[in-house]
Amino acid sequence: MMYITKRMIEIRNLLSRVGQSSSVTLPSIVVIGSQSSGKSSVLEAIVGHEFLPKGSNMITRRPIELTLVNDPQAKVDYGEFPDLGLARVTDFSLIQKTLTELNQSVPESQCVSDDPIRLTIHSPRVPDLSLIDLPGYIQVAGENQPRELKRKISELCDKYIRGPNIILAISAADTDLANSTALQASRRVDPRGERTIGVITKMDLVDPEKGAAILGDKQYPLRLGYVGVISKMPVQTGGLFRRESSNLLASINKNEKAFFNSHPEEFGPNSGAATGTITLRKKLMHVLEQQMSSKLTETTDAITRELEETTYQFKVQYNEQPMSAESYLAASLDDFKHQFHNFANTFGRQQLLELLKDSLDQKVLDQLAARYWNKPIEDLFIAPAEPDSLVDLPKADPKSPYWHRQLDTACSGLTRLGVGRLAATVASNAIQANIDKLLDKSSFAKHPSARQVISEAAALVLADRAYATSDGIEISLKPYKFDPDIQPNEWEKGREHVVGVLQGELEQCQNALKSLESSVGGRKKLREVMGFVDKARKGEIIIEGDHPSGAGGFSAALLARGREAVFLRDRADIINMRIVASKSRKCKSLENKYYCPEIFLDAVATKLAQTAVLFLNVEMLNDFYHRFPREVETKLNEYMNSHGGNGLEKFAREDPKIRRHLDLVQRKELLELVLMKIQDLHRFDAAGNVKADRD
Ligand code: GDP
To answer: Of 416, 424, 389, 400, nearest to 477 (Cα)?
Structure first.
């Protein structure tokens, strides 16, 4: 058995995972030839299967790195595409289809790509070989092909035919050897013909004497010689059925024997001519084995050097700190959970209450604006001369059903606005925003997809409880919808609080006025236009409609700002008055609630918020704290197992720092493995086995 080749091919494939390590290259057989020279037919005959892309317009655009693994255990032949995660493909027409698709993935404008397709074929009938099929040389670029296609193919082949690779130069017997592009290319890099095997296809198409003359060629002598083959597909019998692939080599062999044996003088044992695909296969095995063995010491030295360098870098850069995708994920998750735990300890009922009350304050202001402030309310109060003087409250009759109705409507507008939904939304948004903030500060910030998975896990858990929570809250608030039942102490608290809310609103009005001022170019200008608007409102000036070019020397845009400013000024005046009113003695008493709607609504809002929060805390927050960490684990697991089981590695590599660390650790581990395997080979060699094997 070709023990060395098998092991060296394994090592070669391992090394290809180490990455760019130019110092360690193990020999492979590169197959070159002109288009239609019969290159694919030869390769398929060696493998014993039809599997290469076909079709008149089919130009191979990527190298195919083909590893043949002699696998005595394999019950059926199968192929694997390690880079695609495609394992054990027993249908060779599917392999052909996959290769065709991968080939077509190179855009025509790019012509060819040097990114190889890796394919491994396991069979008890193939020898251990490492072959690289390259795009066929083209003589004249076709009508629809870019001009540089020819040059690019040639450059790609040049990359691969360098030493220590063995060149399998394919030429057809019915073309002049002097014109063989494959032989011309190989002579450029291997002028003494030391690592080139010449393959002459289509031997059946020339006279036996001419054929024999080509094989014994003296003009282009090759140390490894020429082999003549006839690898044309045997004529198909059996109608629609695909040819039994395992018989492919056998039938080609039969075909070749029939031809070569019928010309014993030219091709017989005494002719010195090497013929037949079986002979070619043996030669390939032998030559590759020799080339691999001769590289054993050199390769070992190169790997040892590379490992030393990697180990040194590991020490210097990472202080030998281990790293794996698993450990990175575990550490990131631990850290996140820790931060989450801290958050859970600081965000509870009180925080929810404040948030909800803030939102309800806004709703209270909306109600006040809608029911009181936006209407002429001069008759509700008269502005006091000084804050503490007794406010001359309504001129209107306090018993007037109008004011009762106003307050009742405002109050039910508040209790019936859907506090359940509002509370659930406020809580969900706040929790979600906090989780997102935690994520931004965690290592998941560098992993957008995983970050999204966690963020969505939070959304899912929250959404899950939203309906039941909001429903529960609505039920618990039902009594307040009919009678809010405000107590004196609640009134007192409402009075204290609402003044702050009104002051906040006042400040906003004033800030908005200021920014209007600067947007029109100063206070003076704004005053002018406000004066104009005021006059217009009082009817002192008549503006006919919204004239697009403005009025009174002011542009339409300026007038719009002026109106806005007048509104804000009036709103600020009203709020100012209401602050004073709320602070006044009259408003100390719950009895005067019809004159102090701000306080009453605030007290109602507090009541609503307090009741809602009891529910929120249990139904939503505690449930979230319990379920979220579990949900994160489940969802992250699902995510990591996606991408053909590659998710974890992909995840860790998204962070460039981790990727570099991982690369180095994995490179070191791979090199250690390779070195161990190659040392085993040395022991095998030292025991004299290689020589025996070679003989
Ligand atoms: P490639 O373009 O170099 O891969 O060439 P193919 O393997 O596709 O072969 C080109 C054509 O030559 C096909 O029609 C094959 O059937 C034919 N062919 C290949 N080998 C032989 C052979 O040994 N004898 C004959 N007569 N035809 C062959």
So the answer is: 416
Contact in structure between 424 and 470 (CB atoms under 8 Å): yes
Name 275's bridge partners: 228
Q: Count H helices, E strands: the chain? A: 23, 10
Contacts of 49 (CB under 8 A, 6+ apart): 77, 92, 95, 121, 245, 248
pLDDT in tens, 323-353: 999 999 999 999 999 999 999 999 999 999 9
Q: Is 240 helix (H, G, I), strand (E, B) or coil?
A: coil
- Complex ipTM tops 0.95: yes
- Cα(27) to centroid(ligand 1), Å: 27
Residue 129 sits at the vertex; the CA angle it makes with 219 and 30, to the nearest 5 degrees, is: 45
Q: Cα of 233 to ligand 1 centre, how many Å?
A: 8
Cα–Cα distance measured from residue 226 to residue 214, given in angstroms and rounded to the nearest whole number: 8
Residue owning the nearest CA to atom 6 of ligand 1: 38
- Report how far residue 5's alpha carbon sits from residue 684's, in angstroms, rounded to the nearest whole number: 13
Q: pLDDT tens for residues 587-639?
A: 998 888 888 999 999 999 999 999 999 999 988 999 999 999 999 999 999 99
Q: Which residues pair with 70 in a beta bridge?
A: 123
Å from CA of 146 to ligand 1 middle: 25
Report the 10 Å Cβ neighbour count for 105. 12
Which residues, other chains included, contact 109 with Cβ-Cβ below 8 Å and sequence gap of 6+? 146
Q: Within 10 Å of residue 326's Cβ, how many Cβ atoms?
A: 12
**Ligand 1 pocket: which residues have CB below 6 Å?**
33, 35-41, 136, 201-202, 204-205, 230-233
Distance of alpha carbon 165 from alpha carbon 65, whole angstroms: 13
DSSP secondary structure letters along 352-365: HHHHHHHHHHHHHH
Residue type for 262, please? S
**Under 8 Å between Cβ of 565 and 532:** no
User: Phi then psi for 665, rounded to 5 degrees?
Assistant: -65, -45
Is there a contact between 356 and 423 (Cβ–Cβ < 8 Å)? yes
pTM > 0.80: no
Strands across the sheet with 274-275, in order? 86-89, 78-81, 117-123, 64-70, 129-133, 29-33, 166-172, 196-201, 226-228, 274-275
Beta-carbon contacts of 159 under 8 Å, excluding residues fewer than 6 positions away, are 114
Closest C-alpha to 602, from 578, 618, 576: 578
* b/e burial code for range 556-574 (CB count within 10 A of at least 16 → b): eebbebbebbbebbebbeb
How far is ligand 1, taken at its centre, from the CA of residue 174, in Å?
Answer: 11
Closest ligand 1 atom to 52 CA = 4
Atom of ligand 1 nearest to the CA of 42: 7
Atom of ligand 1 nearest to the CA of 34: 3
| Residues found in the chain | 695
> CA distances (Å), 79 to each of 84, 99, 275, 276, in order?
12, 11, 28, 25
For ligand 1, the distance from its centroid to the CA atom of residue 40, given in whole angstroms, is 7
Closest alpha carbon to 400 in 541, 595, 179: 595
Q: Whose CA is nearest to atom 21 of ligand 1?
A: 232
DSSP single-letter state for residue 122: E
